[in-house]
Amino acid sequence: MRFIAFFIASFLALLAQPAAAASSPSLSSLEQQLSSLVSGTSADVGIAALDLSTGETVSIKGNTPFPMASTVKVAIAALYLAQVDHGRRSLDDRINGQSARSLMARMLIHSDNRATDILLKDLGGPNAVHDWLQDNGISGLRVDRTIAQLLSSKRDLWDRRDSSTPVAMVDLLKRIYSAQLIKPESRNYLLDLMAQCQTGKNRMKALLPFGTPVEHKTGTLDGLTDDVGFITLPDGRRVAVAIFARGGSNRPKRSPRRPARSMTASSRCSRGLSAVPPHQPNRCSCTSSRAGRSAALLRPSWSSAI
């Protein structure tokens, strides 16, 4: 289960080399190594990543549907912001006595399910989000139920309702970043909230060197661990990443306390990532037990949180 750390370190190391990026190397070798590592784990894992500057991609089971869990909240936020951009709504609108701005922050930073369903109902329900995605050419991602309905349903990690392929999720992230779905101002607002994400601290952030800018959204169900978002390279380029993992026999241990700052062997392969602008909103720690943290990413959470 150490392949997630290998994936992130190898992919970022490749993209961080200007010569390599310019020559647009084949990523087939990396995909083959990842496939080999995936085959050695009892979890069912799907990964997709896209360099938003060069267009280089890598994926494992990229077209296989996985439950989105709370990663669907990125799509809900994007639709609301698209309507703000078109003057149909405002972040200062009051919904159930709360501002849309407050609900959005609770949904993305703390993964608040009630706040999510309030916004979702105001938008017209799951069908409104699903239809908007389809109308904008995003296929392979479907929204069928509210969060309350999803949690009350019998758990089936192979249910295609409320699922996304890794490639479809990365496509959504790409369109958000390129301002195809929402205006740059709304995109920056959304990414700022994702940078403050407080859930899943043992996932993408924990596998990267201290100070690496990450804007992400996690998703968790019994037996399911998801993480999607953006990672910024030292030269400012962003990589859109979607990681989904379900099943598996290993139960997670409580995440250890993260040290304030550690530059050990685990960060040697990508030491340059620590050099980021001081104004970046998020900071994460890198520990000497990267393999252990990568295993934690793949082990499904056994809580009922989403």
Give a short summary of the structure.
By secondary structure, the chain is α+β, with helices and mostly antiparallel strands.
What features would you describe in this structure?
The protein is α+β, with helices and mostly antiparallel strands. The protein has a single domain (3-298), classed as DD-peptidase/beta-lactamase superfamily (Beta-lactamase, 3-Layer(aba) Sandwich), CATH 3.40.710.10. The chain contains eleven helices and nine strands. The protein has helices at 3-15, 18-23, 28-39, 73-85, 100-109, 113-123, 126-135, 147-152, 166-177, 184-195, 290-298, and strands spanning 43-51, 57-60, 66-67, 94-95, 98-99, 163-164, 214-221, 224-232, 238-247. The strands form three sheets. It has a five-stranded antiparallel sheet with strand order 2-1-9-8-7, sandwiched between helices. The chain has a two-stranded antiparallel ribbon with strand order 3-6. Helix 1 runs antiparallel to helix 3 and helix 4 crosses helix 6.
